[in-house]
Amino acid sequence: HGNPRSGRWEPAGPRPPLAAMFADGTAPGADVESLWRSARTARCEAKSCQTEQISTVETAAQSHTSRDAAVQADQSKDALQDFHQEVQVDYTSLLSFLQRVEDAVIKELNKNWKSRAFDGFEVNWTDQNEAVLCLHTLSYPEAQDQNLQVTSVSWNATGSVVACSYGRLDGGDWSTEKSYVCTWNLDRRGLNPQHPDLVVDVPSSVMCLAFHPSQPALIAGGLFSGELVVWDTSRTEDPVIWRTGMTDDTHTDPVYQVNWLPDTKHGNNSRLLSVSTDGKILVWREEQDGRLALAEGFAMVAQQIPRSTWLKKFTGGEAAVGVTSLSFSHFDHRVFIVGVEGGYSLKCSTAAETLALHPTRSSVPLRAPAELAFSPHGGPVYSVSCSPFHRQVNLFLSCGTDGQVHLHSMLQTQPLISLQLSKKYLFCVRWSPVRPLVFAAASGEGNCNKHFCFIGDVYLFDFEKSSQKPAISIKQAAGECPVYCLEFNIKQTQLLAAGDATGTVKVWQLSSDFTEQGPRELNRLEQLASEITD
Amino acid sequence: AEVEETLKRIQAHRGVVATIVVNAEGIPIRTTLDNSTTVQYAGLLHQLTMKARSTVRDIDPQNDLTFLRIRSKKHEIMVAPDKEYLLIVIQNPCE
């Protein structure tokens, strides 16, 4: 600025005075208008909004009538057509495809039919264990000190917890003994067989137990006093969540069996079903205040049992028929089988309409459900079990004090097969959940060789191996120990829990031939069911 | 029509338990089983057939899958593959 230049070159033309070449001055700054940024206000407008006064009106509504309606999606008969409509099918190309492959497929089908290549070929996917082992021997010393017996065992929905109820099966008519319900979680590390995970004190003898089929913590028990109680094992404070209490509706005799029923009408809630020797079969639903209220009921009265030639001499009249056990059909949920003290089993239906002539009052009318009476055992029936396998001809087993197990088809009164398993009483019979031809029976006291003996056995019967004698007979314990109850574990199918009179529950691990279904078993079962009906 | 005739012939063969025709996307277009079982078979076998086909072609690109048979304890499943369709036949072999 202002320094006179002394350049090497000289401008052409007359030279102006040096000082006039440069002058101080300020140039105005150059402004470049921004092309993209413009004053926000140029594009904006001010607006305001205000919600208007909301108009409100107060009203109340109260429904005073209600009606129960059920909604059920019908099986769509157009199921096949449904996906046809979505997919465009080019029939000509489909036809040419089928014509191309038909010959090859028919040839393969024929080859298969005649092939002997796979005869006797079986693959072992799992480790074979050959013997039956006793995995756990569980007991509760306090209960054993009081000489209590295990009256019932149950596995929970996940198959990892086994619960047992302590009580006395020979308690007589009046019993005010305390009892316990104990649970052990077998999958836990540090399982102490003498120390149950949970012990619930119960003021009366618990005669039967049932875990909820889908909620792993709920367990229901039937008491000697005729009450039903539901415990929630996840609650540490007071596990009792529902009970029937002693009302006019409660059973007047011990409850020998309790089952959970799926309640299709009221969402996912289940109902409880209880069976007792006072002849009543009651269905309970849960009320809010922790009570169990009677939802529906059935009563077995001697007069209303369907008559048959061999029942002619039964003159029970209006006497109640004591029900000792019950099993629902796996395929038709309205059909169930009950075993009674009179020694026979009955086929019943929940859809029965006729009212029962039962003498006691009840808040809900009791119905007579019996439809068909099966031919009797030589003594009271203690346990019935419906097969989960055969669809067409529902099969069930019944066992009783005559030491016999009868395999019945629900369609005929005479048993298909009648097995004399032992000379002792049979207390419990259960079908295997995996092998259609296998069942287990628990035996106990009885007369053998002219004296009363108490040795308990668990018999495992396999129709595939023999139709006359048990495949395996497991001795529960040395010495006197009748086995009163047993249950298969549905999730871990190699486990079988058996409870006995000395207050121990033994968890047996069955060998692999009891846990894997053979290739032809269902067919053999069907054959068995139909061979004697001819 | 003729499609039904052909399928009926296959279905009537000794021991055949079910017949399913599946299109290239794995959607069943003809079946003799109930809906849910059909959808299950169609989806699983479609995937398995694709895997089997790619296995054969990976080993030898000049080769291709012509037929797939799966033998299980209870039955034999036969799959006849094609560019546009899949025919699944389930047979209970005699013993």
| Overall number of domains of chain A | 1
Radius of gyration of chain A, taken over Cα atoms and rounded to an integer in Å: 39 Å
Q: What is the total tally of β strands of chain A?
A: 30
Number of domains of chain B: 1
Number of helices of chain B: 2
InterPro entries (chain A): Dynein_IC, WD40/YVTN_repeat-like_dom_sf, WD40_repeat_dom_sf, WD40_rpt
GO cellular component, one term (chain A): cytoplasmic dynein complex
GO molecular function (chain A): dynein heavy chain binding; dynein light chain binding
Keywords (chain A): Cytoplasm, Repeat, WD repeat
Structural summary, described in words:
The complex is a heterodimer of chains A (534) and B (95). Chain A is mainly β. Chain A has helices at residues 18-21, 40-43, 79-86, 91-114, 141-145, 521-531; strands at 133-139, 149-155, 161-167, 179-185, 198-202, 206-211, 218-223, 228-232, 240-243, 255-262, 270-276, 280-286, 292-299, 323-328, 335-340, 345-349, 366-367, 370-373, 381-386, 395-400, 404-409, 417-420, 424-431, 438-448, 451-453, 457-462, 472-475, 483-488, 495-500, 504-509. In chain A, the strands form 7 sheets. In chain A, strands 10-11-12-13-17 form a 5-stranded mixed beta sheet, with no helix packed on it. In chain A, strands 23, 24, 25, 26 and 27 form a 5-stranded antiparallel beta sheet that branches. In chain A, strands 1-30-29-28 form a 4-stranded antiparallel beta sheet. In chain A, a hairpin with a 6-residue loop joins strand 28 and strand 29 (495-500). Chain B is an alpha+beta fold and 95 residues long. Chain B has helices at 2-11, 35-59, and strands spanning 16-23, 28-31, 68-71, 76-81, 85-91. Chain B has a 5-stranded antiparallel beta sheet, sandwiched between helices. The mean pLDDT of chain B is 89. The A-B interface holds A 76, 79-80, 82-84, 86-87, 89, 91, 93-95, 97-102, 104-106, 108-110, 112-113, 115, 118-119, 122-123, 517-520 and B 1-3, 6-7, 9-10, 13-16, 21, 23, 27-29, 31, 34-35, 66-67, 69, 71, 73-74, 76, 78, 80, 82, 84-85, 87, 89, 91, 93-95.
